[in-house]
Amino acid sequence: MHTKSEDKVKKSQELLNQLKNKIEQKLPAENILDYKVTWNKEKGIDPNSEEHRKYLVKLCDDFVSKMCSMIHTAVQAKKRADGPLIEEIVQHIQFSQDKCRQFHGRDDVFKQIKRYVQGMSNEPMVLYGPSGCGKTSIMAMAAKQCAEWTNNKAAVVFR
Q1: 129 and which of 26, 47, 87, 133 could share a cystine (Cβ 3.0–4.6 Å)?
Q2: Domain boundaries in the chain?
């Protein structure tokens, strides 16, 4: 005949084994570390025990080392994947900021663009003119002003 305490222990062991199986199925083997430590029936893991203290230090050191390695690997992979794209985006932003710094005048064109941006048109807005007339500078400044004109409700994509 099993006591309630024995049944609890048996159920806990079953749950622990189920958890271990799930972890082994989900995690790569190199991310599963196995430690052997004597369990204290009264205190569980007792930091006052030399064996347990060494176990805890090793567990913490391994955890920090593994996490740092995984984070470093993920950051490097992200840099490799996004490198050219991020570089291009930064170049576009810097180009646009430079054009905005050089910008002056053209209030009449800006009034038309502002009306368009704040309006309900489904038609595309086309800005055209001869080479060197300032189209890029106008669009850079308009992109900069869109947030203000729309109370931060506009998404601006500039290329």
Answers
A1: 133
A2: 9-82, 103-159
